[in-house]
Amino acid sequence: MPVRPPLPDSVSPPSTVNGWVYDDEASWNAHVWTAPDAPQSVAVFDHFDEVAVKAIDDRVQGFHNRAPVATVDAVENNRSASVVRAIDKAVDWMEAISPGAWKHPAVNEAVFNPPPGYELTHYYIESRKVIVYYHREGTHEDQRPTGSTTADGLEVTTETYPYLVVKTWRGSGNAIVALAPWDYAHETEMVDVRNPPDGCGLDIALTIARDYVAAVIGDDTNPPAVGQANLTAWTQ
Fold first, then answer.
1. Which of 11, 109, 187, 214 lies 20 to 30 Å (CA to CA) from residue 129?
2. Spatial separation of the C-alpha atoms in residues 76 and 54, rounded to whole Å
3. Is residue 31 part of a domain?
4. CA 51, CA 205: separation in Å to the nearest integer?
């Protein structure tokens, strides 16, 4: 059972704020409001030395799907008062920004437009890396067999390696575009299929992945709605 940050007995979180709805069943150890028609949340977390308000893009995995909104220093002998002040800051933020209007600054919308024939399964934003997994539609969905650490012996095709992985390192912008035989594959189990230029960043790496898919299983008749249509053209 999740443990909510403490509040005085006389105080309850507001049930709705400008369209944001308090979620009594949220699984996090936080007070959480969700956007009914958008994959977004606002949460108040009670950390060791502070109470933090964060806006969250629920489409994305990893702790960096949480963007900081405000913090309140935690008062050890009166933590509930710190939580109340943090909720006030969360309410101020929600009153100013309606559900669906907020955009996470680190989230790339082009990720959600997978190459033709693929579906997005994971989008991680980590402290050092961004990892995107696409799955080839109509193929098996597997995780690593128990005890296995390699994919030796598998012929490399988009059927036997049904996961297309785009990984970039935050800061350097270096990237890989690879196929993986199963979900959550180690890099030693992946097979690079393109060699992105150094420092290319996520946008170009996604475009290179699309170009690879177009060359292997067919082209897309429509350019992506967001991001690079090809290595030299953009769509908005």
1. 214
2. 21
3. yes
4. 37
Domain membership flag for residue 104: no
Report the alpha-carbon distance of residue 135 to residue 164 in Å, rounded.
6
Which two three-digit tokens encode residue 75? 């008062």
- Summarised one tens digit per residue, pLDDT across range 112-167 is 999 999 999 999 999 999 999 999 998 887 655 544 444 555 677 778 889 999 99
Residues 86-89: contacts with CB under 8 Å, at least 24 apart: 86/5, 86/44, 86/51, 86/52, 86/53, 87/7, 87/13, 87/14, 87/31, 87/44, 89/53
**pTM, to two decimals:** 0.84
pLDDT at 111 over 60: yes
Cα 164 to Cα 73, 131, 168, 183, distances in angstroms = 43, 11, 13, 10
Q: Does pLDDT of 224 surpass 80?
A: no
How far, in Å, CA of 161 to CA of 138, rounded?
12
Pairing of strands 118-125, 191-194: unpaired
Domains in the chain: how many in total?
Answer: 2
* Same domain flag for 20 and 76: yes
